[in-house]
């Protein structure tokens, strides 16, 4: 009898706790149903969950302990696979979209949907970031920076430095006796590449560059955290890192301006920041300091993080699939054979011939879901497929679900670059660099950088992982918990 009483003392409070939160969920949904009136019945199916917190804890649970696919699977199981669900996440009333045609409509119709990140990301990116400026301002900025970032002459100018950085990196890694964190090492190299492209003409201490790498890491780690600006929280640390990073960027910009003034007409632009200092619109107006530093800051993240993670995953997928590795290697060997004897390194035209390697990159972006969500906000009430997205509600395009959809990509768990042979998919089904006017302006540069790294890897190296079954972390970008602890081994040459 005493045992039964003890169990009741444990169970009753627990049941009361669960029922209490269930009541809170119902009351929260009832509150918004009354607030929205008839519009409530026009919303997609879903659940606003708990007050204030919403589905954020569920998101964090699945993206911390896995599998992340279960977050959307819960909605599909409860409400059917309808492609749109209402919820409350990251502090906002939100419609989650995971259907290609709706994603395409949201991404391409900026008269109804504008970029709108949640509070943490919006604060860290900055108000002058390309991610957040108005459509008109974005078009102006994009027009002015296209040539410095992705113009043919600019890309050719960057290739030699990227290749030399990749060669020296692989040589150093293969000479190391101890294993290394491959992800950390690649991130260091991609940061070095981006630094040189953006600000390399200004002599900078190596300690400053390492500090900027660390600051950038602190900022990225806070992207999916709560905006709690208090010591001990990631957001607080990220804000301090952002402030310091902008101080460094501003000091470099100030130094460049002094050099330009001193040299006068003999001065010429040698890197991205130089070019941003020079560009003028049709009215003869250039960028102010805040715009330049914000753009450089935004591109540092896009240029380093996404390129590094994609390169690491491509190396892992190639290593785990020897037949695909061999096919990629044969393509690169063929490119080398057709190269004229006087040519010293990779050319832009050769990179454009790397068809299979390009498919390897696409398949890596799909399977790893480097960019797993995109954020928008409805500026008006929008009716789609008989359901309403209310004005002011956030819209999250859940790209991870599209990437792993069996109907869109048969056998989605398998790494199969050949699936992109003459691929004709649903518009909006695969958008790793975005779509419409907001498509990433640095996508060509990113693909070139990744291609050069993979070119030298498949030709000359292999890796041996120490923990091939290592668990994954999914935030802010999926990666092995040990950051891919491995040995890089130089393959014997054909002359050895």
Automatic annotation (TrEMBL):
One of its GO terms (molecular function) is ent-kaurenoic acid monooxygenase activity. Keywords: Heme, Iron, Membrane, Metal-binding, Monooxygenase, Oxidoreductase, Transmembrane, Transmembrane helix. Pfam families: p450 (PF00067). The keyword Transmembrane helix applies. InterPro entries: Cyt_P450, Cyt_P450_CS, Cyt_P450_E_grp-I, Cyt_P450_sf. GO terms for biological process: brassinosteroid biosynthetic process; brassinosteroid homeostasis; sterol metabolic process. The chain crosses the membrane at residues 6-24. Its main location: membrane. Its cofactor is heme. It is a single-pass membrane protein. One of its GO terms (cellular component) is membrane. Heme binds at residue 440. It is found in: Membrane. The keyword Heme applies. SUPFAM superfamilies: Cytochrome P450. Belongs to the cytochrome P450 family. This is Beta-amyrin 11-oxidase-like isoform X2. It comes from Cucumis melo. The gene is LOC103490805.
């Amino acid at each position: 009898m005493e045992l039964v009483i003890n169990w009741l003392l444990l169970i009753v409070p627990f049941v009361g706790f669960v029922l209490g939160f269930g009541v809170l969920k119902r009351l929260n949904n009832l509150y918004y149903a009354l607030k929205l009136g008839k519009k409530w019945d026009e919303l997609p199916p879903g659940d606003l969950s708990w007050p204030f917190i919403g589905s954020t804890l569920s998101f964090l649970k699945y993206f911390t302990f896995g599998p992340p696919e279960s977050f959307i699977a819960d909605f599909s199981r409860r409400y059917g696979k309808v492609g749109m669900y209402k919820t409350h996440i990251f502090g906002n009333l939100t419609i989650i979209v995971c259907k290609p045609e709706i994603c395409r409509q949201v991404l391409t119709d900026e008269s109804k949907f504008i970029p709108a990140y949640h509070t943490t990301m919006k604060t860290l990116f900055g108000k002058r970031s390309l991610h957040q400026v108005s459509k008109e301002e974005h078009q102006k900025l994009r027009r002015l920076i296209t040539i410095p970032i992705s113009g043919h002459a600019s890309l050719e100018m960057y290739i030699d430095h990227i290749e030399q950085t990749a060669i020296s990196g692989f040589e150093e890694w293969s000479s190391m006796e101890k294993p290394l964190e491959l992800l950390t090492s690649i991130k260091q190299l991609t940061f070095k590449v981006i630094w040189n492209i953006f600000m390399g003409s200004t002599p900078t201490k190596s300690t400053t560059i390492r500090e900027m790498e660390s600051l950038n890491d602190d900022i990225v780690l806070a992207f999916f955290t709560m905006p709690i600006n208090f010591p001990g929280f990631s957001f607080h640390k990220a804000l301090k890192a952002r402030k310091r990073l902008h101080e460094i960027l501003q000091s470099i910009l100030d130094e460049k301006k002094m050099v330009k003034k001193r040299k006068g007409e003999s001065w010429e632009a040698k890197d991205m920041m130089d070019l941003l200092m020079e560009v003028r619109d049709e009215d003869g107006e250039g960028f102010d300091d805040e715009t330049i530093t914000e753009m450089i800051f935004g591109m540092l993240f896009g240029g380093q993080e996404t390129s590094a993670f994609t390169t690491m995953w491509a190396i892992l997928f190639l290593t785990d699939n020897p037949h695909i590795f061999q096919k990629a290697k044969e393509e690169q060997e063929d490119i080398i054979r057709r190269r004229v004897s006087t040519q010293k390194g990779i050319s832009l035209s050769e990179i454009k011939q790397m068809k299979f390697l390009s498919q390897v990159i696409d398949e890596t972006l799909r399977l790893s879901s480097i960019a797993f969500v995109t954020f928008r906000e409805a500026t008006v009430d929008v009716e789609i497929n008989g359901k309403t997205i209310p004005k002011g509600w956030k819209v999250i395009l859940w790209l991870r679900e599209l990437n792993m959809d069996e109907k869109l990509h048969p056998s989605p768990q398998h790494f199969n670059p050949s699936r992109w042979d003459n691929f004709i998919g649903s518009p909006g089904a695969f958008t790793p660099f975005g779509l419409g006017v907001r498509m990433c302006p640095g996508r060509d540069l990113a693909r070139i950088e990744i291609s050069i790294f993979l070119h030298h890897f498949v030709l000359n190296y292999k890796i041996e992982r120490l923990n091939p079954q290592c668990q994954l972390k999914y935030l802010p970008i999926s990666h092995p918990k040990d950051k891919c602890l491995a040995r890089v081994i130089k393959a014997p040459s054909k002359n050895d």
